[in-house]
Design brief:
Elements lengths: L4 E2 L7 E2 L7 E4 L5 H8 L15 H12 L5 E17 L2 E18 L2 E7 L4 H16 L13 E2 L17 H16 L5 E19 L3 E19 L5 E10 L12 H16 L2 E2 L3 E2 L2 E3 L6 H8 L4 H5 L19 E4 L20 E6 L2 E2 L6 H7 L7 E2 L8 E2 L3 E4 L6 H6 L3 E14 L5 E13 L2 E7 L2 E5 H6 L1 E4 L4 E3 L4 E3 L3 E3 L1 E4 L2 E3 L3 E3 L14
Parallel strand pairs: 7-9, 11-22, 13-20, 19-28
Antiparallel strand pairs: 1-3, 2-6, 3-5, 4-5, 4-8, 5-6, 8-9, 9-10, 12-30, 13-29, 14-15, 14-19, 15-16, 17-18, 20-21, 21-22, 21-23, 23-30, 24-29, 25-28, 26-27
Helix pairs in contact: 2-3, 4-5
Length: 527
Amino acid sequence: MNSKKKRRELSRRQFLGRSAAGVTALGFSSTLLNTLLLHTGCKTGAQATDLIVPEDVLKKAVELLMAKGADFGEVFAERSAFDTLMSDDRKINTTTLIEKGVGVRGVKEGKTFYAYTASFEPDEIYKTAQFVADAAAQGIVGETALIVDMARQTSDLSFPIVPHPDETAADKKIEMVQGLTERAWSADERVNQVSQYFQEIMRQINIATSSGKIINQLVGRTLFYALTYMKDKDGNLQMGMDSRGAYAGMDFFTGENSFEVVVDKSVERAKKLLSAIDSPRGMFPVVLGPGGTGVLFHESCGHGMEADLVFKGSNYKDQIGKQTAAKGVTLIDDGTLPELAGSFAFDDEGTPSQRTVLVNDGIQENYLCDLIWAAKLGIKSTGSGRRQSFRYPPIPRMRNTFIDGGDVPPEDIIANTKKGIYVAQTGGGGEVDVITGNFMMGVGEAYLIEDGKITSPIKGATLSGMGINAMKTIDLVGNDLVVFPGAGMCGKGQSVPTGFGMPTIRVRGIMVGGPGEAWDDVEGGAK
């Protein structure tokens, strides 16, 4: 475990696309931050600094980047450590991954030019910046002197990491996961397999922009997944899953977010699926429970509101001021919520995070924008420029996206539904066309609603439709908003953590697929 294995590091700048740069694998250390500082950082140039790369190096790199006429540019330095502990059928695997590098972006007339290096040495950073400057110049000869006045940016937002990963010994974390594994195995004699995944992430990020901003952010994230498989005497195998993730330390995992609750929910979901009946099929009322089910609208609607996809022709293009959801439905994307995975003080372009109302009482009000695509649409950035790592340029992405709470008690929504299904958890795979909003998504936990009451658990259900149509047929919005602290990643050519949520809602414009009998909508169709 103490041996160190280093992969080849690329020192020459390259355009986006190579994925091996700046990665080092170490034994599980449980001293993430200290390991991060010891193994990465600029070793030459200015004297010691709290920045990864000294301020004078960042300043010179930005000036070189902009010397040949780029309209905008930034230097993005990152060093990250990922401590991972996986348990699969009582076998424990532990790894620590360290990643470091500098990405340089230049923008000229709306076109992006990007390169990165795995080195923090000033000469390599300068070469990378000059390379991007030359590419953005597109053959223009000559350089102009440029002086950029740099100023440190501060924020009132705070995301404490308590405890820091290095404050809990590695053997204590291993012991914790072993205990959680045994908790699942001992819950039911039908348990057939148990998989659990615990990860702590520390990222330090520096951003220096041609507009004169210097950002220094430390991002810490902790996440936990539990998957429990059960098999009955007839060979029926079912899987239950639950997870939590937070922009915080292990102290977040208490109460309903505790590791034990996550394990117990995975067990209960597998158990219920063993006794579940086949889902009915047809177009009838679907009640979606609060919290994690909001991923349905994250996928089917949220992506279509990201400015680059709006510009390319998503079904939300040219919809500002128009109705895109039912009256009473408000959709918000908020990067300032404490502890949630999509929260941060500054986005990856140095823009302060903010709360953005996308749909207000059914009317489209805004899109999710970074600096570049906001300019193309003629609106302002919403602080939504995000990237997976230094290898990628920022693009418009969601943060924590949710339908806001209404005024209907959730029990009244159930009581006013004669015949339908209640979805407590989506999952089980699916696909979404981010331009059209057409979606198909599996269901992880769901129940029949009969005569205003939740009854039998069901299995095999899928949900499909078009996001904008589903939003327009929401007819009841609960007062029990939950923004779910999810552990998942959102993919769009690159992956970033996001949050999502909503209150209990009833929607009439979703098609339910399933192996059971066909149902009619006894209430007369979408209202």
